[in-house]
Specification:
Blueprint lengths: L21 H29 L17 H25 L8 H30 L6 H6 L6 H30 L6 E3 L4 H25 L8 H5 L3 H26 L1 E4 L1 H26 L11 H30 L1
Antiparallel strand pairs: 1-2
Helix pairs in contact: 1-2, 1-5, 2-3, 2-5, 3-5, 3-8, 3-9, 6-8, 6-10, 8-9, 8-10, 9-10
Length: about 325
């Protein structure tokens, strides 16, 4: 009886992955508990507000007059954060490896996009504040009341922990399921249409990066009067985070499209994180700017709305290049 050698590329894949080492399983259990616990503060606050509670909302806050718009916004954002629980289960339970790819990658891509600027900006803002470069109590008191300061600390700390825990759970999951997609080098140049899309993404990223850097260093063009007067080190850090994400999206898309001997994992990571953050936050800010405006301000300027739309376009173009690269890896 003879046997035929099978090339590793065509070797059948076992439907049941090998069990993880004991230490890895223990670490996964800890990360699961941490990720789930990090959703509790935000979910509890949203549930309390939907039930009529005013916890964390000071007297005179514009939120008290928001009406149905705020109710809908609270319900939607509560549902979005509740999806983190389902996402954690998909990433940690055996049946999660059988979940259709699009049903996992779309929410993971969205979560990456929404959480990345927070992961980049919030700790830096805390550091800026600790060093005495943030808003002082006089500036805070002069602003129109919105939420108690502790609410932002609790909510964004929870988001930061969620982001770190989800990333730590997703990486080993993705390695087990799609590891071959980022092994080796980038390889051959992608077809010409993809190269054009990637170049457009890179061009848009340069424009966005320049605009966000301009705002970060004190520029006021394109901002409304309230935003211009409120400039400080803390919002500057946020602008730097968005600039970083946009530039990462453009650079990652361009590197994936041009091919070459670069290790595939890092331009793939740049494109994934940058495209997700730029697209998600552009969409989020644009939708918010088009909705009812709270308070007495006029809302974002037309220039700011164009920037938000530019984020959406740039993020979408980078996502197209990223998707085409992943398809090419599947076909190879």
């Amino acid at each position: 009886m003879t046997t035929r050698a099978v090339h590793p590329k065509h070797a059948p894949q076992s439907s049941t992955p090998a069990p993880a080492p004991v230490g890895a399983r223990a670490g996964r259990h800890v990360l699961t508990a941490v990720a789930l616990a990090a959703t509790v503060p935000y979910l509890a606050l949203k549930a309390a507000w939907l039930s009529g509670s005013r916890i964390g909302i000071p007297d005179g806050s514009v939120l008290l007059e928001a009406g149905p718009f705020l109710t809908v916004a609270n319900a939607v954002t509560l549902a979005m954060d509740a999806c983190v629980i389902l996402l954690v289960l998909v990433l940690t339970r055996p049946w999660g490896l059988r979940t259709p790819a699009w049903m996992l990658t779309v929410p993971v891509f969205t979560a990456t996009g929404l959480l990345t600027p927070i992961l980049l900006g919030f700790p830096a803002q805390l550091l800026v504040r600790a060093l005495g470069f943030g808003d002082g109590p006089e500036a805070a008191a002069a602003r129109e009341p919105f939420l108690d300061s502790w609410v932002f600390i609790v909510v964004y700390t929870g988001f930061t922990i969620q982001g770190l825990a989800l990333a730590a759970l997703f990486v080993p999951y993705a390695r087990r399921r799609w590891g071959r997609r980022w092994q080796g080098v980038v390889g051959e140049r992608l077809p010409s249409p993809t190269g054009v899309v990637a170049a457009a993404a890179a061009s848009g990223a340069l424009v966005l990066g320049a605009m966000f850097l301009y705002w970060a260093f004190g520029g006021t063009a394109g901002l409304d009067a309230e935003q211009g007067e409120a400039h400080s080190a803390e919002p500057a850090v946020g602008s730097l985070a968005h600039a970083t994400c946009a530039l990462a999206a453009g650079a990652g898309a361009l590197l994936l499209a041009r091919g070459g001997a670069l290790r595939a994992w890092w331009p793939l990571g740049l494109a994934w994180v940058g495209a997700a953050a730029t697209l998600a936050w552009g969409a989020w800010l644009l939708v918010a700017s088009l909705g009812p405006q709270l308070g007495q301000g006029e809302g974002p300027s037309t220039a700011a709305q164009l920037i938000y739309a530019g984020q959406m376009v740039t993020g979408s173009l980078a996502t197209v290049a990223l998707t085409r690269f992943l398809i090419s890896r599947r076909e190879s």
